[in-house]
Amino acid sequence: MKVIYTYTDEAPALATHSFLPIIEAYAGKADVAVETRDISLAARVLAAFDLVPDALGELGALAKTPEANIIKLPNISASIPQLKAAIKELQGAGHAVPDYPDDPQTDEERAARAAYDSVKGSAVNPVLREGNSDRRAPASVKNFARSHPHSMGAWSSESASHVSTMSDGDFRHSERSVTVAEAGELRIEHVAADGTVTVLKPAVPVQAGEVVDAAVMRAGALRAFLAEQVADAKAKGVLFSVHLKATMMKVSDPILFGHAVQIYFADVFAQYGDDLASVGADPDDGLASVLTALEKLPADKRAAIEKAITATYDSGPSLAMVDSDRGITNLHVPSDVIIDASMPAAIRSSGQMWNAANEQQDAKFVIPDSSYAPLYAETLAFCREHGAFDPTTMGTVPNVGLMAQKAEEYGSHDKTFEIDAAGTVRVVDAAGATLLEHEVAAGDVWRACQTKDAPIRNWVQLAVSRARATGVPAVFWLDETRGHDAQVIEKVRAYLAEEDTDGLTIEILPVAEATRYTLERAKRGEDTISVTGNVLRDYLTDLFPIMELGTSAKMLSIVPLMNGGGLFETGAGGSAPKHVQQLVRENHLRWDSLGEFLALAVSFEFLADKTDNPRAKVLGTTLDDATGALLENGRSPSRRAGELDNRGSHFYLALYWAEALAEQSDDAELAKVFAPLAEKLGAAEETIVGELNGVQGEPVDLGGYYYVDKAKADEVMRPSTTLNAALAEF
Predict the structure, then answer these.
(1) Rounded to an integer, what distance in angstroms lies between the CA atom of residue 724 and that of residue 730?
(2) What pTM value is reported for the model?
(3) pLDDT, tens digit (0-9, with 9 covering 90-100), for 617-637
(4) Alpha carbon of 128 to those of 249, 404, 544, 566, 572: distances in Å?
């Protein structure tokens, strides 16, 4: 068994250039092999056209074996604008990848589109996640947060911030679900008003006991809802903001985002819609895409549309901003405002977002689908009543997440369709029986999801195991009035009956009640295990860690793979783009690799148990000790240039790790090997830190954003000749 360390994107990838040489040097002394696999967006694009080996496919196969020991760093779940930017970089570097075909007409274009569709959005996680999720804040990290609390914005009982969500016509209210009795294949088809049948998906394999859902977001209801919210935001004097997940929900949510752009700029599209369409302006890609397309129009027409856009800003509600200084609004790019990152950030900041004057202001948080909106609505209401949470006293909320084998919405991409014509969409079994169906209109977004039985059983077992190990109440966030949840609840109750739950507190509550229950306990300093589906797993493991720890990057994320291997995830990467921007601007990377430290330690311990390698165990326990020392000594990255950054944090981790290895008594020979390195690094501390901090302040060139020049990245991320020499000599 080897440690497979993934090379991904943005700040985590840059940090790898600095940290990986340390890992390789230390692991090599304990007979632990470390290999990397490039699953970055750029590498996935190249692999889609057979220009490099398919590393993601290789790891997907490995994840189904007992030999898997994969450390997975955050990667880009690419929206179309991100994908197009990556394609442009690759083409500029001489790689023969085709343009992204927005409207494929030829077989070649359709093949290219299919290849790119396999890369965009949540392409990585469904492949690697062959197990359910166990995410929690390690005790050392939680204790550090309590003794060194991060800042939390003050809440006012007069706050006008609020969540707005649909009460009908959305996925939540239209969802229908069935448990399939026998293995086989299903067919998804559209039946037009004249009886014409169009097969949307000819063969959907299903297993016995699998839960299959279907739901529709009705475009008419969505647009009416959005128009109401634009008007209401103006009337209430709050910022208008839309919160979706256009990365993971790569088919449905960009379409919903496009409707929001069109409704906010309704007058612009009413007057100039044909002109915009003529130059390929696609609101699904955001306002930035529309503004870029304007450059293709004659100057007078472009000026008229720009004037109309400015008039909309003046007459409509103020928009929440992503970057006030650069004029980037909430509606500019669909991947800029991802709900599980944007909502916790707002909740931590007094329930407010930033306006065009770079000031915080109360906001309307528009979350169209009501499936999970109550999580944020209840949290806003709770903070409005009780004030901000106190990191020094609040409890912790670990999560057991159902995500194995493309569970739930995140597996819907190949079964999501924007409907062309009115009629009925139905799911039909091999015998021709209709299992699920919806009446649909042109423009509606219809989707089907699957959740296999084995992952549900494993999820229940994992929840009971965690409740037993901790003595903490476990809450299944399930609503019996929702189609999918009703099917899952039946299975949960059946599988709980097979487990030893004596003395355990296990609840099944809908989202709003589960939120209140958990918040009330957290306020009292009590812990609660959240047991959720795939989307809520994402939402909760950002929301609570950001309140508890200041960031979700400090969570320990273990995925016990169902076939015996292990996947160790290193935290969330929502802030990674801003970190890269700062590095390029002033050579300071504030990315915190704590998640990598935590995951690596558990990976070593897992390998030790699987291969009977006691030295790997020593590596893991001493790495934990080093991580604790790093936190206690305040060696995490600073936000300001000229101070300790990611590279400096890595140096101190290397120093404390070498010291811990030299001082441990479990392996005297290993201690003897590391003692000279610990002494050398300690003696050179001032020199090394001076070299690492001294390069900061000036712009750097990485040779690309999505496709960095790895030699340049090495040079930028390893500027200490003293540290480099010490590792090389070691």
Answers:
(1) 10
(2) 0.84
(3) 999 999 999 998 999 899 999
(4) 17, 9, 25, 10, 16
